[in-house]
Amino acid sequence: MSDEDHHFESKADAGASKTFPQQAGTIRKNGYIVIKGRPCKVVEVSTSKTGKHGHAKCHFVGIDIFSGKKIEDIVPSSHNCDVPRVSRTDYQLIDISEDGFDDLRLPTEEALLTLIKSGFGEGKDLIVTVMSSMGEEQICALKDIGPK
């Protein structure tokens, strides 16, 4: 043993990955998948039969969970796909800043944005549900728990 001090500097996060692998043939409708680098909710899956090259193919149609854009991909059913880790957390709305961004950006969906602003303006106690995945987060739902 020596008298030297040892210092270890950690530059890693908690070790949780933003995605995990899953075989394409096991991914179902209403599940999640990463298509072209974007986290998507699967809205349609179709599987073709094995062809002369030996692989059945899965055709995925997904909706980007943050932008709402439709994205498609075709993957051999025996290959692995990335599946995003998606979490939902509820927070109490305390304040809305003038620029619409403090801790969280306000949603771009017009109906939800109107409900949040009008409820906050009326002094209601609001709970927002925040969906987060792959380093992005966005308000996706609103609950009114009454007046303050």
Automatic annotation (TrEMBL):
Q: Which GO terms describe its molecular function?
A: ribosome binding; RNA binding; translation elongation factor activity; translation initiation factor activity
Which species does the entry assign this protein to? Hibiscus syriacus
- Where does the Translation initiation factor 5A C-terminal domain lie? 85-143
The record's section on PANTHER family has: TRANSLATION INITIATION FACTOR 5A FAMILY MEMBER (PTHR11673)
Region feature Disordered, mapped onto this chain: 1-21
- Work out whether the entry's keyword set contains Acetylation: no
Residue intervals passing through the bilayer: none
Q: Its Gene Ontology biological processes? A: positive regulation of translational elongation; positive regulation of translational termination
Taxonomy-wise, where does this protein's organism fall, top ranks first?
A: Eukaryota, Viridiplantae, Streptophyta, Embryophyta, Tracheophyta
Stated role? Translation factor that promotes translation elongation and termination, particularly upon ribosome stalling at specific amino acid sequence contexts. Binds between the exit (E) and peptidyl (P) site of the ribosome and promotes rescue of stalled ribosome: specifically required for efficient translation of polyproline-containing peptides as well as other motifs that stall the ribosome. Acts as ribosome quality control (RQC) cofactor by joining the RQC complex to facilitate peptidyl transfer during CAT tailing step.
Coiled-coil annotated residue ranges, if any: none
Full protein name: Eukaryotic translation initiation factor 5A
Q: Compositionally biased, Basic and acidic residues: which spans?
A: 1-12
